[in-house]
Design a protein that fits this description.
alpha/beta, five-stranded parallel β-sheet, four-stranded parallel β-sheet, 10 helices, globular, binds phosphoric acid mono(formamide)ester
């Protein structure tokens, strides 16, 4: 495995995370450069994406590199039966870095075992989404001025939502209080509750998304119910609209409270929230370009401050 790969958020120490956030801040101030002159980045998306793929590709383009890849595996030789191993080995012949999203949990980790080219996991099934976590942390830092000691409420699909799994893991370094608001069928997996216990993190699990929890939150992290992960369509129908945040629900929220969502949204946030000063999800997505510039340069061993 190339040690510069980023497969899961727990590949990063607290110091690594803080250094990446510093680098992200640098790129927000200096988005355009020639740091990637002569470099080629492959983006292999075996699952749909808007933000992750386009922000990775924007990041590369703004750094002066070039992008190859596919956004639909049906247009690749995967559709002819090529294995993931062979696809990764082939693309390693062409690119300096591989960014990949795959529907199988562990696919990115597997990819690191068949190539020395660095791999960045852009989401593997319901497992992990570490680059999303870096932009989430940056968004939290920008809006709150700190990462330590925040009350963070996660709402919706905590079972299949890979972004919340990665974010809980990263936040273990920063002493949050978590509220996990979810239907029983979409509960946070036990391994993440255990991770909280192991790290002395206070957490509460509840079904009610009420004024009490909204008004004590610094961050409300809404999530989409991940229809594509359900084996039983009826089970999805039962829970798909379990939580919707509306503008009238945040009238008495703390001044500093901000609403995050990895997006895409379906019904989780009513459009009347978009015009409030609490909505931060579109800026959050823009932060993805800078966070991914930080991740890409780190993966390629390029230090922007030493060029
Ligand atoms: N947040 C996120 O992963 O969005 P996309 O699925 O559009 O990439």
């Amino acid at each position: 495995m190339n040690p510069n790969s980023l497969v899961a958020i727990n590949d990063l120490s607290r110091e690594d995370i803080l250094a990446l956030l510093d680098r992200t801040r640098y790129f927000e101030g200096h988005p355009n450069s020639h740091l990637l002159d002569g470099k080629i980045v492959a983006t292999l998306f075996f699952e749909p994406s808007t933000r992750t793929r386009l922000s990775f590709e924007t990041a590369v383009n703004r750094l002066g590199g070039r992008v190859i890849g596919f956004s639909d595996a049906a247009t690749s030789s995967t559709s002819k039966g090529e294995t993931l191993k062979d696809t990764i080995k082939m693309v390693s012949n062409y690119a300096d870095l591989i960014v990949m999203r795959h529907f199988i949990e562990g696919a990115a980790e597997y990819a690191t075992s068949v190539t020395q080219t660095p791999i960045v996991n852009a989401g593997d099934g319901a497992n992990q989404h570490p680059s999303q976590t870096m932009l989430d942390l940056y968004s939290i830092l920008k809006t709150q001025g700190k990462l330590e000691g925040l009350t963070i409420t996660m709402v919706g699909d905590l079972k299949y939502g890979r972004t919340v799994h990665s974010l809980v893991t990263a936040m273990r370094f920063f002493k949050p209080v978590f509220y996990f608001v979810c239907d029983d069928e979409l509960a946070m997996p036990e391994q993440y509750l255990q991770l909280c216990r192991d790290n002395g993190i206070e957490f509460h699990v509840q079904r009610e998304f009420d004024q009490d929890v909204i008004n004590k939150s610094d961050i409300i992290y809404m999530t989409r119910v991940q229809r594509e992960r359900f084996k039983d369509p009826e089970a999805y129908e039962r829970v798909k609209d379990c939580y919707t945040l509306r503008a009238d629900m945040i009238m008495n929220a703390k001044d500093n409270m901000r609403i995050l969502h990895p997006l895409p949204r379906v019904n989780e946030i009513a459009e009347d929230v978009d015009d409030t000063d609490k909505a931060y999800y579109f800026e959050q997505a823009r932060n993805g370009v800078y966070a991914r510039q930080a991740i890409i340069t780190r993966a390629l061993g390029i230090d922007p401050l030493k060029q």
